Amino acid sequence: MGTGQEQVKRELLLDGLDCANCALKIENGVKKIKGITDCSVNFVTKTLLVHTTSDMDEHVLEEAKRKVLRLEPHIRISEKGRPPLGNQASAGLGDPLDDQLHTHAETAAEGRHDHGGHSHDHDHHEGAHHHSHGHVADHHAHDHHSHAGHDHGHSHDHDAHAGHSHEHGAGQTKVLLARLAAGSALVAAAIWSPLDGWAQLALYVVAYLIAGGDIVLQAFKNIIRGQVFDEYFLMSVATIGAFAIGEYPEGVAVMLFYQLGELFQGMAVNRSRKSIQSLMDIRPDYANILIGSGDETKRVSPEDVRIGDRIVVRAGEKVPLDGIVKAGHSMVDTSALTGESVPRELEPGSDVLSGFVNKNGMLTIEVTKTFGESTVSKILDLVQNASSRKAKTEHFISKFARYYTPVVVILAALIAFVPPLVLSGATFADWIYRALVFLVISCPCALVVSIPLGFFGGIGAASRNGILVKGSNYLEALNDVKVVVFDKTGTLTKGVFNVTAIRPEGGYTEGELMELAAIAEAQSNHPIAESIRAAWAKDIRTQGVEGYDEVAGYGIRVCVDGREVLAGNAKLMEQAGITYTKPETVGTVVHIAEAGAYAGHLIIADEVKDDAAAAIQALKKLGIHKTVMLTGDAKAVGEAVGQALGVDEVYAGLLPQHKVERLEELEAGKSPKEKMVFVGDGINDTPVLARADVGVAMGGLGSDAAIEAADVVIMTDEPSRLASAIRIAKRTRMIVWQNIGFALGVKVIFLLLGVFGIATMWEAVFSDVGVTVLAVLNAMRVLRVKNI
């Protein structure tokens, strides 16, 4: 963001946000407020994310709330710890019209969890990364239940929309269906009854007011506020215009069909919302905390549990917080976090993460993180806020919609009045009708609703496959990836060293060689020493062992029963003047000598992950031009691993700063349109993750550093999930562009048919509402991606 000041992120729940055009108006309006560095409205989760500088936070936030209520006065704004801001709360905000509109809109704050909160942001790279820390995450989790309709008694949602709503609850649906039935009956009566003249017109007018009076009223209120070009205005002008030229049945019928279409559209959007939110149905509702030293438990909210507390998780329950198993054995289902269907076995000492589901036994867990810092909170936070970083396609549609409707209205005016003045025989009634058809077709709803929905669905589908994408901009960028750079240790390999070969010499047996090595490495905390002790797997003798000396960069000297034992690399042997064998096997070599005589050597190797080779092949099939591996290991080790996996280029012996340099060299060698991904473990690779176009943290489950540093977090240890992420990105883009092509194509055809007098208002309404419903349903197909 580049202000040099600390950035603050505030999230507001916009209760009653019911149309994508409204979301667009709010986003454009709030962005213009001085002191707001960035803002984003998520139509799917009904949230407004505002970025301000810390010294202007409260003042700017109040101004943002005023702007929202002026644009959409029926919306109630919730912030954490405060009642919803709606009708009565807006009394002092300087817009008398808002108060008149909503004297009936009583808030239901008592039963609702409020959903605001703030967190401090820190830019990652290119001003695009906003990492919220901990305490903000709990309200996202509440949002999850409220949006998805899984309230569990926590939230009572009374939508007090003053105008027309795209989101219909059961009560609203019945009322709307009753209005549609009454309007249809009156139209039928007007058409087939013997009445004519004023009596017949009165029936049409009453039918029209029943069917679309709320839309006309909303259009009038919006015009008073200076909001002219929206769907309410377009439908009102088109249908009132139809009455003006004597097309009474068509004017009423179009409004009836429009309302019916809006009902279907609202149902489709709600279904999509619930589908997306159900992917993230991982928030635990409660924790069973142990009281005192006995077995008595008390059910509390996960937010009330502190670090060090002990909780009990019974069979079938979700693990509410991160911790360590202190008692009990069980199998847990990790699929909600990792997408993995294979259960994981837990025993005392095992780490456990919130979001796991306990399958059979009872577990006693000591909590190591508060709920706000837990894995499940961070995942909910990342997925629900991913839409704040929008793809270029979304930005294009936002700008397109802003100018498209006014242009169409101007064209409609020209169609209505120019031809009758310049063409002989042309009548105003005919060309005004064509202009009205043109107006009805012009609503950009299909694009404005379905495209953000498509990207959000793609992010949801990725999360179900164990892949967290921090923004739709990164999901879109994955489509253009041509170079993938991997770190080796912990990414393509398991990062766990094992003794793979024992080569005794000079009359020593394998057991004697291993024992000498284990004694020498007994006090070292180096990963290689740990692997030797693990391979020995017996008690290590301490009697007669003295004079321990660890020589950095060489190895270890120690006296065993008065005889000097050396364990280390070739340099240690050369320093002691001992002749040693140079093995041909690739791996880390530990030479062992006793009393000046060579005893043999051990080969220590890092195992390659099971799916690493398949991951490289899958990436190449997806059109990746170049795969590269960077490692700090010796050249021989790196090249052997690279060759085994089929990696195109290997760079070995690199320190973290050298990895950045290599990445910049690779960046210079590709075209500007091509994207480069770096895949690392997220702990030692933060500079490289930040430098790449898309930074992917591998094995990031439970790693705070990984979740903070990367743009995409793969929650399992499987490199093959990167190919899955790219496939989901490609599928998402395909569906988004299908919707763009379909919506614009149908509209262009019907606009031309309308101008030439072929299309009537019936076709016009289909091209608006029908296309929107079909586009929304098409966008929902993204969600069906599972184990891709």
UniProtKB/TrEMBL annotation:
Q: What class of enzyme is it?
A: translocase
Q: Which parts pass through the membrane?
A: 176-195, 201-217, 400-419, 431-456, 736-758
Matches recorded under InterPro entries: ATPase_P-typ_cyto_dom_N, ATPase_P-typ_P_site, ATPase_P-typ_TM_dom_sf, ATPase_P-typ_transduc_dom_A_sf, ATPase_P-type_domA, Cation_Transport_ATPase_IB, HAD-like_sf, HAD_sf
Membrane topology, as annotated: Multi-pass membrane protein
Q: Does the keyword Cell membrane apply?
A: yes
Q: Which reactions fall under this protein's catalytic activity?
A: Cd(2+)(in) + ATP + H2O = Cd(2+)(out) + ADP + phosphate + H(+)
Q: What is its main location?
A: membrane
Sorted UniProt keywords: ATP-binding, Cadmium, Cell membrane, Ion transport, Membrane, Metal-binding, Nucleotide-binding, Phosphoprotein, Translocase, Transmembrane, Transmembrane helix, Transport
Where found? Cell membrane
Ranges of Basic and acidic residues compositional bias?
99-126, 135-169
Q: Which SUPFAM superfamilies match?
A: Calcium ATPase, transduction domain A, Calcium ATPase, transmembrane domain M, HAD-like, HMA, heavy metal-associated domain
What sequence ranges are listed for the domain HMA? 8-76
Protein family membership: Belongs to the cation transport ATPase (P-type) (TC 3.A.3) family. Type IB subfamily.
In Swiss-Prot or TrEMBL terms, this protein is called Cd(2+)-exporting ATPase
Which organism is the protein's source?
A: Paenibacillus illinoisensis
